[in-house]
Amino acid sequence: MLGGCATAGGSDMSAPPAGTTSATPSLTLHSNMSTYRSTRTHSETAPPVRLRIPAIEVDTRLVELELERNKSIEVPDELSVAGWWKGGPRPGQVGPAVILGHVSRNAPAVFSRLHTLQQDDEILVDRADGTTGRFVVTRQGMYKKVAFPSDLVYYPTLEPELRLVTCGGLDGATGKYTENLVVFAVLASGPG
Q1: Between β-strands 22-23 and 103-104, what pairing exists: parallel, antiparallel or unpaired?
Q2: CA–CA gap between residue 176 and residue 15 (Å, rounded)
Q3: What is the tens place of the pLDDT at every residue in 95-135?
């Protein structure tokens, strides 16, 4: 299930004030997927520290995101910074790593151009050990907040995958985002 969007620097990061102009999703975990781990043995993957998406000129540090008390994922405090949900797989580990970022209609934001990504566009995730995971976009989808596809975003996968999530579907009358954009990507090369 997906909560409301949030404004950067706001006091309530899980629900936006009326007339918000910048947003990022506040994701609520489905079932108990935060504790899923593969029974297979995999080498350790270093934590992600930077996200680069050349096609839309994104180059940002990554902050770690945790769960709020209401079980939604916290959001980055800054418009220009993306965040990685540290309760899930690290980008490059088996499973869907989730990265969240803001959009804005009035100011530059890290995922403002995310909707323009195309199939096979490159997403690079730099890690603390100097390696880089190279992902390629496979598809994207726009989903109503009330019908957020938790299974598609969080459900375990057999291969390393990436999900970039932000808000979409701005309602001009209310100033609220009614949908979420999810970009799906797969690991294109092994650990760098």
Answers
A1: antiparallel
A2: 10
A3: 999 999 999 888 889 999 999 999 999 999 999 999 999 99
